[in-house]
Amino acid sequence: MKVTAYIFLLFLSLNAMAQDNIYPAGKQLGTLIIANGTIHTGTGDVIRKGTIVIKDGKISKISEQPESTEGGTVIDASGKNVYPGLILPSTDLGLREIGSGVRGSNDYFELGEYNPDVRAVVAYNTDSRIINTLRSNGILLANIMPEGRLLTGTSSVVQLDAWTWEDALYKADNGMVLNMPLLMKPLRRFGPPPATDPVSEDLKKIEGLKSFFKEAKAYKNTSDKQETNLKFEALKPLFEKKQKLFVHAETARQILMAIDLAKTFDINVVIVGGSDSYLVADLLKQNNIPVILNTLHALPTLEDDAVDQPFKTPALLKKAGVLFALNDDAEEPRYRNLAFLAGTAASYGLSKEEALQAITGNTAKILGIDDRTGTLEVGKDANIIISTGDVLDMGQSVITDAFIQGRKINLANKQTQLYERYKEKYQL
To answer: Under CATH, domain 86-373 is a member of which superfamily?
Structure first.
C-alpha cells in the first residue's frame, strides 16, 4: 500500500512540475533575416559578418554582404556565432523518461529477439521534460532508436518542437536497429564460470539472424504470397536500400561481423558505438560503412587501450577517410553535452569546423536527411542556432536563439524556470 501511495504522489509531483507554458512555435511567416553574425555553415566554411535570409522555413539566401532588411524581421547576431542545429544520432529521447525508477514513464524496450516491425516513433513522447533541455543546448533534431535484445525495430528522425509524434516526424523509419552479440567472454571475478560458452552462444544468435534475413529476402522476392508476414514486410526497405542497418557494436570482432552482414546481404550498415572502429578503419572505408561514436567522455572499452583513446578516435577515423558522427548517450546529463564532446574531439586532432561537422553535416548524411538539413545552404530547412560564444566550448556557449524550419522556438525548460524562481526567492 505504501508503494502504491508513493508512486501516486510521484506522478502528482511530475504533473506539478510540467512545463505548461512551453509549447511549439507557430509556422514561420514573412521574411526573417539573421544579420552580422559569424556563420559556420557546417561544410567547413566560415563567413564573417554574414547574413542569412529565411522564407517559408527555408534558407533562401546566404551572403557575405548586408542585405536589405525592409519588410523583414531582423535578428542582429553581431559578435555571435551562427550554426546549423545540432543532431543527436542515436537516442532513446522521448522513450525513456525516469530510467528504471518508474516503468510507466518508459516505452523503449520490446520483448523477443526479432522485432523489425516495431516503430520507435509511435511511442515518442513530445511532452518529455528532457527535450527542452536539449534544445537549450542547441540540439534540434534526434534519431529515435528502440532498444531490445537482437533486432529491435526501426528508428526515425524527429524535430524537437512539436505537439504530437506525427508533427515531430522529420524522416520516418530511416533505419533498422540491431544489437550485435558481444562475441567475447564477460569478465568474472567471482562465482562459477557460465555453464555454456558465451562466444558459442553469440555465434548461434548471429547464424539465427542470418537465417532470418535469408527467409525475409526470399519472402521479398516471392510474388504469390499465401499470407502476410509482418516481420518480413518490415525488412523490405532494408533489402531495397531505403533503410540502413544501425548495428550497435563496440569491439573489433563485432564490427567485423557487421561488415560481413553488409557484404552477405548487400545492405547499408552503420556502426553505432564503434569504440574499436579505429582498429578496422581501413576496412570500414573500403566497405563505405560510417560510424556513430558514442560518448567520448568515457573509459576505453578494453584494458589495454590508452586511457585517452576515445578522445583520439574521431581524428583517426577522419584520417582514414571514414564518415563518422558523434553521439551523446550518457544517461546522467541526458544527452545535452553533444556539442562539448565535439569540443573534446577538436582538442585531439580535429579542427573546430571538422568537429562541428561531426554533430551536424556528417550526422545528416548518415541519417539520410542531408538533402534537408545538417548544413547552412540555400534551399535547406532553416534549422539554426545562435550562440554568444563557441558552441563547442562549455565555458563560452550560451544559446540565445534557435530556429526549427524557420520557427523561433522557446529555449526555456524546467531547469531555467527553477533558476528564475529561486533567483527571485532569494533576490540574487
So the answer is: Metal-dependent hydrolases (3.20.20.140)
